């Protein structure tokens, strides 16, 4: 069975978090959809709230510290990304934007992304289209057509059924799985690939 890596970026601030809950639901549905295509997926979750200070350090120094590097490598080395943010003031959270600000601007080129967002009211649902989609378009990612938004009334029981959250999750996961399964597996970038050999250095090249 083929193998792929899925990175899940969750920008939720509370514990427990509806943002993380949506991210987990999207990840589980994507793993199942990939398995139906003969692909086994490894999922790594990046909780941005754990890296808030690391991200601030990166902004002022220009370098990712030891705490942030594994999170960045998980995202840039993944075959597909599930990115979920809470919506504040009709847009993504500052923590979410800061993370993608410090990701190398070319690292997501051609990489499949599934967008998700949560908020207390459905009035914020268009933030997926006017905020998140342009962000990932700028980064030249390949964004799944269906973004998944979940307001408070979408969760649980009759509310989830009547608002179609489960169906949206399944549709978006199928789209991401198709993008990931039909794309060659990502290879981890070697940061020393362009470094000269010792022989070249000793030879004065």
UniProtKB/TrEMBL annotation:
InterPro entries: CE1759_FMN_reduct (IPR023932), Flavoprotein-like_sf (IPR029039), FMN_Rdtase-like_dom (IPR005025), NAD(P)H-dep_FMN_reductase (IPR051814). GO terms for molecular function: oxidoreductase activity. Keywords: Flavoprotein, FMN, Oxidoreductase. It comes from the Bacteria. Its EC number is 1.5.1.-. SUPFAM superfamilies: Flavoproteins. The keyword Cell wall biogenesis/degradation does not apply. Residues 5-155 form the NADPH-dependent FMN reductase-like domain. This is FMN reductase. It comes from Pseudonocardia lutea.
């Amino acid at each position: 069975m083929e193998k792929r890596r899925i990175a899940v970026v969750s920008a939720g601030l509370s514990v427990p978090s509806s943002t993380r809950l949506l991210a987990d639901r999207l990840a589980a549905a994507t793993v199942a959809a990939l398995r139906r295509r003969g692909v086994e997926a490894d999922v790594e979750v990046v909780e941005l709230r754990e890296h808030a200070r690391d991200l601030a350090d990166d902004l002022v120094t220009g370098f990712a510290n030891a705490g942030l590097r594994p999170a960045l490598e998980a995202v840039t080395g993944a075959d597909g990304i599930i990115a979920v943010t809470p919506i504040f003031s009709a847009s993504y959270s500052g923590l979410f934007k800061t993370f993608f600000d410090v990701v190398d601007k070319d690292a997501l080129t051609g990489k499949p992304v599934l967008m998700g967002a949560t908020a207390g009211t459905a009035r914020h649902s268009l933030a997926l289209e006017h905020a998140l989609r342009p962000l990932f378009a700028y980064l030249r990612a390949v964004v799944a057509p269906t973004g998944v938004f979940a307001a408070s009334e979408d969760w649980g029981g009759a509310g989830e059924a009547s608002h179609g959250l489960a169906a949206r999750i399944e549709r978006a996961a199928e789209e991401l799985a198709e993008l990931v399964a039909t794309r060659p597996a990502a290879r981890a970038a070697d940061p020393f690939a362009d470094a000269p050999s010792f022989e070249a250095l000793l030879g004065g090249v």
